[in-house]
Specification:
By secondary structure, the protein is an all-alpha fold. The protein has eleven helices and no strands.
């Protein structure tokens, strides 16, 4: 299946290109938001920009899965020393933090369908682009899980992914602590709401955008410290999908819940932010905005220069 990626960028009202461009050149602007909706989506340039966004989401989600579930599969005692729950939680947080600064200026570093849907509900992403992000995230998660399997298969005796050894999400027998369905629902609703609430809050113009990756990465680490014993922590349908595809069994039969409740939790997170802000999201400029602004400024300056030269010629040669 071929994917057509289309970027649309608009300049916010009150745009101040020179100030924003100085911020970009100093490396200040890094935002976990999303390319704003609107603008012209046609043309080869727009398609190439959306292709870069899609590839960035694939890479980012793959890194998240390799860093998070990968650490749980490979570094929790099965193949040697264990890093424990704390190590796995930090691995998830660090993977997100690193990708936030690596691909944040390109795609917004959603790498999570619940975040993407939250950004759409908040008015930061056109609805037509939501499937593009989600498909890229599912592809990235699958590739990340495949990489984990390939690495583990190189161990003595080989390795076959199963629900019991592949860091899947679940309740009852799939829960590390034996927690039931109700506990899983509460955890996924509340903690995904927390994650999306924090992500959305970092897109405000009042937030120090250079700290977004650190803030969200630490939030994800905290979430895992709380909920790994409950259901292995999802808060991300793509993360759950990637490992369940290869583990099969109950991991697949329970997978629906890790789409429904994290996404519902993401909606709660946006609603909570709206209640605090009491108005639609005030999205900060991304690096994409700034590059486009600089290009627009250059075009306008060149147009003005040509107009002045043309006027001069007309005056001198009536």
């Amino acid at each position: 299946m071929s994917l057509v990626w289309t970027l649309c960028v608009v300049s916010p009202q009150g745009f101040d290109a020179p100030t924003w461009w100085r911020d970009l050149s100093s490396g200040v602007i890094i935002s976990l938001s999303s390319p704003p909706g609107g603008g012209d989506q046609s043309g080869e340039g727009g398609m190439m920009k959306m292709l870069r966004i899609g590839v960035a989401e694939i890479i980012g989600t793959a890194v998240l899965v390799i860093g998070g579930p990968g650490s749980a599969v490979l570094a929790t005692g099965t193949f040697g020393p264990t890093i424990g729950v704390l190590g796995v939680a930090l691995a998830f947080g660090l993977a997100l933090l690193i990708m936030a600064y690596a691909i944040g200026p390109i795609s917004g570093c959603h790498i999570n369908p619940a975040v993407t849907i939250g950004m759409w509900l908040g008015g930061a992403l056109k609805g037509a682009l939501v499937p593009v992000y989600v498909v890229a995230q599912l592809i990235g998660a699958t590739l990340g899980a495949l990489a984990i399997w390939g690495i583990a298969a190189g161990a003595p005796g080989g390795f076959d992914p199963e629900p019991s050894n592949f860091a899947v999400n679940g309740w009852d027998e799939l829960s590390p602590g034996g927690f039931g369905f109700g506990a899983m629902v509460i955890v996924e609703l509340l903690l995904t709401a927390l994650l999306v609430f924090v992500v959305v809050s970092t897109t405000s113009r009042r937030f120090s955008v250079g700290q977004a990756g650190i803030t969200i990465g630490l939030t994800l680490a905290l979430i895992h410290l709380v909920s790994i014993p409950i259901d292995n922590t999802s808060v991300n349908p793509a993360r759950s999908f990637g490992v369940a595809v290869f583990a099969g069994g109950d991991a697949l039969s329970q997978l629906w819940a890790f789409f429904v409740f994290p996404i519902a939790g993401g909606v709660l997170g946006v609603l909570a932010w709206w209640a605090v802000r009491d108005r639609q999201l005030d999205i900060a400029p991304t690096a994409i905005d700034l590059r486009e602004a600089a290009e627009i400024e250059d075009v306008e300056a060149e147009t003005a220069r040509v107009d002045v030269e043309s006027t001069t010629i007309i005056v001198e040669n009536p």
